[in-house]
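Q: Hi! Curious about what Endolytic murein transglycosylase looks like structurally. Here's the sequence.
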Amino acid sequence: MSSSNEGMNHNRNSERRAVRKIVGITLAALILLIITGGLFAFFYIQSALQPVDSNDDTPITIEIPIGSNVSAIASILEENEIINNDRVFRYYIKFKNESDFQAGEYTFTKAMTLDDIIESLKSGKVAKEPVYTVTIPEGKTIDQIAGIYSKKTNVTKKDFLETVNDPAYIESLIDQYPNLLSEDILDAEIRTPLEGYLFAATYDFYEEDLKAEQIVEKMLNKSNQIVQPKHKEIEKKDLTIHEAVTLASLIEKEAPKEEDRKKISGVFYNRLDQAMPLQTDPTVLYALGKHKDRVLYKDLEVESPYNTYKVKGLPVGPISNFGENALDAVIDPEPSEYLYFVAAPNGEIYYSNNYEEHQKLVEEHLR
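A: Let's find out. The predicted structure is below.
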């Protein structure tokens, strides 16, 4: 009987030792896993906090759109290889309690630290001074834009115009900007495919040897940034992007004052609704291909898909670039019964409901 009890005790002790051994091994494994995981996390975070490449000072220009939150900014920075990890960057910002980042265009490098990047975003200052700063006003044609760049940068007017009229390049841009450019710009009757799509703004460039393609794509990026958020509103007006850009260019040329733009837009919509030709003089001047202080009756007879005295509806394409409020006027025209307006030399615009009233205003203000 005693030997039996001794055997049972021996078995229990063996089981206890085995359990203790298993528990010990498991705890050791867990501790090792925790230490390994901790070390991995430490080195992972440490790596993510370092510059992407301390030896690379190549400028990288990015755009932080208005209204971007920290997550959006972090994603843009990671996509452009300015930071190693967007999640770690967000946690770092939260840890340091940073905020009030500024929208705008920045030039960073892969060698910048997170603190340098954060400081730039807070101050709105770029990391490097631009080589060229070029302002493109509203209401300018491609030809005029090319002339401005030829005076302000190393890109000649000839090179710029050859680039924006290169069919293969235009095809590639349609693929690159599918939400902005469409096959409409390939219409054989359009004078210059990108007319109207190079947005009016001030642009900074950081390369000495600038290429025309860099200019074009920077301007298209800006256009895309302005137009894309308005897609749904444009669709509600039963317009394509090309039609909206075209109408915005007409409003830009007809209304020098912002307060007149929505009213003139309303007039254009009224005429379109009644199948009346738009009869806007800037389209005649564009069709003629020259500037004149006054459009003559004989000018109205020019045969052109741009001449809105001859064609019904909108012209075949835009006649200039435009400002954002001209596009806003397309989306939100001011309702009225007006069908005519007269732009006086002093900048005032006079509206009328019928042709008789319009003729009186013409006599009064233009003759």
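A: A fun detail: Strands lie at 60-64, 104-108, 132-135, 202-205, 340-343, 349-352.
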